[in-house]
Amino acid sequence: MDKQPANQIKIKINGDERPFKEEVAIHKWNANEMESAAATEKTAEEDQFDWVLPEVEDKPIPEFKKIYYEPSIEKAKPNKIFKKNSGSHLLTIFISAATAISIGILFGFIMLKVIAYQTEGVSQKSIGNKQNALPAGASVGQNSSVVLPAITTSIIQGGVFDDATAPANDIKGKGLPAVIITLENKQYILMGVSNNLAEAKQLAEEQKKQDVEVYAKQLTFQEKKIGVSTQDEKTFAEHTGELFRLLTSVSSNAYLTGKLEADSLSNIEKQYKQVEGLKNWKDTNLKKLYSSQKECYQHLLNFQKNADQHEIISAEQALLSYLKQYNEL
């Protein structure tokens, strides 16, 4: 049996066995170095590139330095400065004054226009109100209504009765004013009216001299809402409350003092002129109230002329009638 070489290697490729012989190649030791050096030299020659750089002119960079500049100020003498600028100074003053005057005139003109416009507006408004105001006696519509103010006054009471007719007639027979007012299903006899409780108490003392039982008290009649149909009725409703207060004050004072001051009557006259001459009445109750106040005023005028005490008693009677009619509204 033949001996196989010890260094033989068998290789199978796809199941076929193929012989493989290892051969050792012998090279010169310096051959690789020579080839490597040649290749390096060749590569160096191929990679050699000539660089062309632009020529740059070197300029020296200037050194940065801080510069401090302060203009020199020449001191001039005061008289020279004044002489130099006097002309321009006067011109400046003149221009300023002219500007101020012009602005003042313009502002005044604007204010004048504004005031004139407002005055014209007020005048137009007043004219409009006069045009919209109803003439005396004109109709104000069926659905118009006014509120008569509440009346708080001091009265002299003569008693409370279920039927005060006979006692009231007895009081009138003694020369005293009297009226029957129904309050809370009772009949009250009122014998006088005054502007305040102190005067009412004094009036009560005077009437007691006629052998009657009386005492003073304060009474309030609630406000009344009533319908008005004419301008006359509306005007009267607006002034009747203040007129009643003035008439009551003057009448009670005249009753106690026996005289009537001119100033007091003058105040009544000013208020009475607001309702004087009213004549277009659709509501009979308002007409009765007006008649009572007119009657009281006329008695006060008569008392001023003749100083007759019966005129003051009649004036008080007219005021009591006013309260009765007011209460029945």
Unreliable segments of 5+ consecutive residues: 74-78, 80-84, 122-134
The CATH homologous superfamily of the domain at 145-327: Sporulation related repeat
The CATH class assignment of the domain at 145-327 is Alpha Beta
Structural class per helix/strand content?
alpha+beta
Strand content: 15-25%
**Helix content range:** 40-55%
Strand count: 8
CATH architecture of the domain at 145-327: 2-Layer Sandwich
Summary tags:
single chain, 329 residues, alpha+beta, Alpha-Beta Plaits, 4-stranded antiparallel sheet, two-stranded antiparallel ribbon, 8 strands, 53% helix, elongated
Quick description:
The longest helix is centred in the N-terminal third of the chain and has 55 residues, at 78-132. The chain has eight helices and eight strands; from the N terminus they run E-E-H-H-E-E-H-E-E-H-E-E-H-H-H-H.
Structural notes for this entry:
The protein is 53% helix and 15% strand. It has 329 residues and is of the alpha+beta class. Among the domains are: 86-124; 145-327, Sporulation related repeat (Alpha-Beta Plaits, 2-Layer Sandwich). Strand 5 (179-183) and strand 6 (186-194) form a beta hairpin. The chain starts with 8 loop residues before the first strand and ends with a helix. The chain crosses the membrane at residues 90-112. This is Stage II sporulation protein B.
List the helices and strands and how they pair.
Blueprint: E1 9-13, E2 16-20, H1 31-47, H2 78-132, E3 145-148, E4 151-161, H3 165-173, E5 179-183, E6 186-194, H4 197-208, E7 215-221, E8 224-227, H5 231-257, H6 262-272, H7 284-306, H8 309-327
Antiparallel strand pairs: 1-2, 3-8, 4-6, 4-7, 5-6
Keywords: Membrane, Transmembrane, Transmembrane helix
Protein name: Stage II sporulation protein B
Transmembrane segments: 90-112
